[in-house]
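The following block was generated as part of the benchmark described in Methods. Ligand: pyridoxal-5'-phosphate.
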Amino acid sequence: MDENLLGIIKKNTTGILSSLPAGVTMVAAAKTRTPDEVKAVIESGVKILGYNYVQEAESMHEIIGNTVKWHMIGHLQRNKVKKAVRLFDMIETIDSEELALEVNRQCAAMNKIMPVLVEINSGKESNKTGILPEEAEKLILYISGLPYLQVQGLMTMGPRFGKPEKARPYFKTTKSLFDLIKQAGIPNIAMRHLSMGMSNSYKIAIEEGANIIRIGTLLFGGRNS
Ligand SMILES: *Cc1c(COP(=O)(O)O)cnc(C)c1O
Protein backbone atom coordinates (compact mmCIF):
# COMPACT_ATOMS: atom_id res chain seq x y z
CA MET A 1 0.00 0.00 0.00
CA ASP A 2 1.20 3.45 -0.96
CA GLU A 3 2.28 5.22 2.25
CA ASN A 4 2.01 8.54 0.51
CA LEU A 5 -1.65 7.92 -0.34
CA LEU A 6 -2.42 6.95 3.25
CA GLY A 7 -0.73 10.16 4.38
CA ILE A 8 -3.00 12.17 2.10
CA ILE A 9 -6.09 10.36 3.39
CA LYS A 10 -5.10 11.12 6.99
CA LYS A 11 -4.49 14.77 6.17
CA ASN A 12 -7.84 15.05 4.36
CA THR A 13 -9.67 13.46 7.28
CA THR A 14 -8.05 15.58 9.96
CA GLY A 15 -8.69 18.70 7.88
CA ILE A 16 -12.42 18.09 7.48
CA LEU A 17 -12.96 16.90 11.05
CA SER A 18 -11.27 19.99 12.47
CA SER A 19 -13.40 22.27 10.28
CA LEU A 20 -16.78 20.89 11.37
CA PRO A 21 -18.99 22.89 13.71
CA ALA A 22 -19.66 21.39 17.15
CA GLY A 23 -22.46 18.85 17.01
CA VAL A 24 -21.85 17.76 13.43
CA THR A 25 -20.71 14.14 12.98
CA MET A 26 -18.98 12.79 9.92
CA VAL A 27 -19.70 9.30 8.60
CA ALA A 28 -16.91 8.03 6.36
CA ALA A 29 -18.63 6.57 3.27
CA ALA A 30 -16.18 3.73 2.79
CA LYS A 31 -17.50 1.76 -0.21
CA THR A 32 -14.74 0.27 -2.40
CA ARG A 33 -11.94 1.31 0.00
CA THR A 34 -9.21 -1.02 1.21
CA PRO A 35 -8.66 -1.99 4.86
CA ASP A 36 -5.55 0.24 5.02
CA GLU A 37 -7.50 3.20 3.69
CA VAL A 38 -10.31 2.59 6.18
CA LYS A 39 -7.83 2.24 9.04
CA ALA A 40 -6.24 5.55 8.01
CA VAL A 41 -9.47 7.50 8.48
CA ILE A 42 -10.13 5.78 11.80
CA GLU A 43 -6.64 6.67 13.03
CA SER A 44 -7.43 10.25 12.07
CA GLY A 45 -10.55 10.41 14.20
CA VAL A 46 -13.45 8.93 12.23
CA LYS A 47 -15.90 7.22 14.60
CA ILE A 48 -18.55 5.98 12.14
CA LEU A 49 -18.22 3.98 8.91
CA GLY A 50 -21.04 4.06 6.36
CA TYR A 51 -21.58 1.18 3.94
CA ASN A 52 -23.97 0.67 1.04
CA TYR A 53 -23.83 -3.11 0.94
CA VAL A 54 -24.20 -5.56 3.79
CA GLN A 55 -21.65 -7.95 2.30
CA GLU A 56 -18.94 -5.33 1.98
CA ALA A 57 -19.56 -4.06 5.51
CA GLU A 58 -19.39 -7.61 6.82
CA SER A 59 -15.95 -8.22 5.28
CA MET A 60 -14.60 -4.97 6.66
CA HIS A 61 -16.18 -5.61 10.06
CA GLU A 62 -14.14 -8.80 10.35
CA ILE A 63 -11.02 -6.64 10.12
CA ILE A 64 -12.07 -3.51 11.99
CA GLY A 65 -14.56 -4.86 14.55
CA ASN A 66 -16.49 -2.64 16.93
CA THR A 67 -13.84 0.03 17.45
CA VAL A 68 -16.16 2.25 15.37
CA LYS A 69 -19.92 2.43 14.77
CA TRP A 70 -21.44 1.06 11.56
CA HIS A 71 -24.18 2.80 9.59
CA MET A 72 -26.11 1.32 6.68
CA ILE A 73 -26.39 4.14 4.12
CA GLY A 74 -27.37 2.17 1.00
CA HIS A 75 -30.68 0.73 -0.08
CA LEU A 76 -31.34 -2.30 2.14
CA GLN A 77 -32.78 -5.38 0.46
CA ARG A 78 -35.19 -7.38 2.54
CA ASN A 79 -33.25 -10.62 2.18
CA LYS A 80 -30.20 -8.89 3.73
CA VAL A 81 -31.97 -7.57 6.81
CA LYS A 82 -31.04 -10.46 9.09
CA LYS A 83 -27.33 -9.88 8.55
CA ALA A 84 -27.75 -6.12 8.58
CA VAL A 85 -29.36 -5.95 12.00
CA ARG A 86 -26.55 -8.03 13.47
CA LEU A 87 -23.90 -5.76 12.02
CA PHE A 88 -25.15 -2.19 11.95
CA ASP A 89 -25.60 0.29 14.79
CA MET A 90 -27.94 2.41 12.68
CA ILE A 91 -29.88 1.96 9.45
CA GLU A 92 -30.17 5.35 7.72
CA THR A 93 -32.26 4.14 4.80
CA ILE A 94 -35.66 2.93 5.97
CA ASP A 95 -38.13 3.88 3.25
CA SER A 96 -41.10 1.51 3.42
CA GLU A 97 -43.41 -0.22 5.89
CA GLU A 98 -42.34 -3.60 4.51
CA LEU A 99 -38.67 -2.92 5.19
CA ALA A 100 -39.40 -1.51 8.65
CA LEU A 101 -41.49 -4.54 9.51
CA GLU A 102 -38.76 -6.95 8.44
CA VAL A 103 -36.14 -5.02 10.46
CA ASN A 104 -38.51 -5.21 13.44
CA ARG A 105 -38.94 -8.95 12.97
CA GLN A 106 -35.22 -9.65 12.80
CA CYS A 107 -34.41 -7.31 15.70
CA ALA A 108 -37.09 -8.99 17.81
CA ALA A 109 -35.39 -12.32 17.18
CA MET A 110 -32.16 -10.99 18.66
CA ASN A 111 -33.74 -8.61 21.17
CA LYS A 112 -31.99 -5.55 19.74
CA ILE A 113 -33.50 -2.10 19.36
CA MET A 114 -32.31 -0.56 16.11
CA PRO A 115 -31.93 3.21 15.71
CA VAL A 116 -33.14 4.14 12.23
CA LEU A 117 -33.41 7.17 9.98
CA VAL A 118 -36.13 7.48 7.39
CA GLU A 119 -34.72 8.18 3.93
CA ILE A 120 -36.49 11.02 2.16
CA ASN A 121 -36.59 11.21 -1.63
CA SER A 122 -36.42 14.99 -1.42
CA GLY A 123 -35.86 15.41 -5.14
CA LYS A 124 -38.91 13.27 -5.95
CA GLU A 125 -36.88 11.44 -8.55
CA SER A 126 -38.51 8.17 -9.52
CA ASN A 127 -35.18 6.38 -9.97
CA LYS A 128 -34.12 7.19 -6.43
CA THR A 129 -34.66 5.37 -3.19
CA GLY A 130 -36.38 7.01 -0.26
CA ILE A 131 -39.95 7.89 0.54
CA LEU A 132 -41.66 11.00 -0.80
CA PRO A 133 -41.72 13.87 1.71
CA GLU A 134 -45.53 13.89 1.88
CA GLU A 135 -45.59 10.19 2.83
CA ALA A 136 -42.92 10.36 5.51
CA GLU A 137 -45.07 11.18 8.52
CA LYS A 138 -47.38 8.25 7.85
CA LEU A 139 -44.39 5.90 7.66
CA ILE A 140 -42.94 7.31 10.88
CA LEU A 141 -46.28 6.87 12.66
CA TYR A 142 -46.25 3.27 11.51
CA ILE A 143 -42.68 2.71 12.72
CA SER A 144 -43.48 4.32 16.08
CA GLY A 145 -45.68 1.29 16.70
CA LEU A 146 -42.86 -1.18 16.05
CA PRO A 147 -41.15 -1.99 19.37
CA TYR A 148 -37.70 -2.86 17.99
CA LEU A 149 -37.15 0.25 15.86
CA GLN A 150 -36.55 3.76 17.09
CA VAL A 151 -36.81 6.56 14.55
CA GLN A 152 -34.01 9.03 15.32
CA GLY A 153 -34.28 11.34 12.33
CA LEU A 154 -34.16 11.70 8.57
CA MET A 155 -31.63 11.09 5.82
CA THR A 156 -31.58 12.37 2.26
CA MET A 157 -29.23 12.10 -0.69
CA GLY A 158 -29.94 15.14 -2.84
CA PRO A 159 -28.27 15.48 -6.22
CA ARG A 160 -24.86 13.86 -6.40
CA PHE A 161 -23.22 15.99 -9.03
CA GLY A 162 -23.60 19.47 -10.37
CA LYS A 163 -23.19 22.73 -8.53
CA PRO A 164 -23.45 22.32 -4.74
CA GLU A 165 -26.02 25.12 -4.60
CA LYS A 166 -28.39 22.89 -6.57
CA ALA A 167 -28.69 20.69 -3.49
CA ARG A 168 -29.88 23.45 -1.16
CA PRO A 169 -33.64 23.22 -1.93
CA TYR A 170 -33.57 19.46 -1.29
CA PHE A 171 -31.90 19.99 2.06
CA LYS A 172 -34.39 22.74 2.96
CA THR A 173 -37.31 20.45 2.16
CA THR A 174 -35.87 17.71 4.34
CA LYS A 175 -35.14 20.07 7.24
CA SER A 176 -38.70 21.46 7.16
CA LEU A 177 -40.04 17.94 7.29
CA PHE A 178 -37.68 17.12 10.16
CA ASP A 179 -39.01 20.09 12.16
CA LEU A 180 -42.62 19.24 11.34
CA ILE A 181 -42.26 15.65 12.52
CA LYS A 182 -40.34 16.71 15.61
CA GLN A 183 -43.21 19.01 16.55
CA ALA A 184 -45.86 16.39 15.85
CA GLY A 185 -45.20 14.71 19.18
CA ILE A 186 -45.21 11.17 17.82
CA PRO A 187 -44.57 8.67 20.63
CA ASN A 188 -41.47 6.46 20.78
CA ILE A 189 -39.43 8.49 18.34
CA ALA A 190 -36.51 10.85 19.01
CA MET A 191 -35.88 13.28 16.20
CA ARG A 192 -32.25 14.15 16.70
CA HIS A 193 -30.30 13.26 13.55
CA LEU A 194 -30.48 14.87 10.14
CA SER A 195 -28.14 13.10 7.71
CA MET A 196 -27.57 15.14 4.56
CA GLY A 197 -24.63 16.18 2.44
CA MET A 198 -21.80 14.41 0.65
CA SER A 199 -18.41 15.58 -0.55
CA ASN A 200 -19.73 18.17 -2.99
CA SER A 201 -22.53 19.50 -0.80
CA TYR A 202 -21.73 19.01 2.86
CA LYS A 203 -21.09 22.68 3.64
CA ILE A 204 -24.50 23.64 2.29
CA ALA A 205 -26.08 20.71 4.11
CA ILE A 206 -24.63 21.96 7.40
CA GLU A 207 -25.92 25.47 6.70
CA GLU A 208 -29.36 23.92 6.21
CA GLY A 209 -29.26 21.98 9.47
CA ALA A 210 -27.51 18.66 8.85
CA ASN A 211 -25.80 17.17 11.89
CA ILE A 212 -24.61 14.02 10.13
CA ILE A 213 -22.65 14.31 6.88
CA ARG A 214 -21.54 11.33 4.78
CA ILE A 215 -18.18 11.85 3.07
CA GLY A 216 -16.24 9.56 0.74
CA THR A 217 -14.38 11.29 -2.08
CA LEU A 218 -13.01 14.18 -0.03
CA LEU A 219 -11.38 11.73 2.38
CA PHE A 220 -10.23 8.94 0.11
CA GLY A 221 -10.07 10.53 -3.34
CA GLY A 222 -12.13 9.50 -6.37
CA ARG A 223 -13.46 5.98 -6.78
CA ASN A 224 -12.29 4.14 -9.86
CA SER A 225 -15.64 2.98 -11.11
C1 LIG B 1 -20.95 7.21 -1.61
C2 LIG B 1 -21.98 7.84 -0.74
C3 LIG B 1 -21.73 9.04 -0.04
C4 LIG B 1 -20.43 9.81 -0.19
O1 LIG B 1 -20.28 10.30 -1.48
P1 LIG B 1 -19.00 11.17 -1.89
O2 LIG B 1 -19.47 12.01 -3.01
O3 LIG B 1 -17.94 10.18 -2.29
O4 LIG B 1 -18.60 11.96 -0.69
C5 LIG B 1 -22.71 9.52 0.80
N1 LIG B 1 -23.89 8.90 0.96
C6 LIG B 1 -24.18 7.77 0.31
C7 LIG B 1 -25.49 7.13 0.52
C8 LIG B 1 -23.24 7.21 -0.56
O5 LIG B 1 -23.55 6.08 -1.22
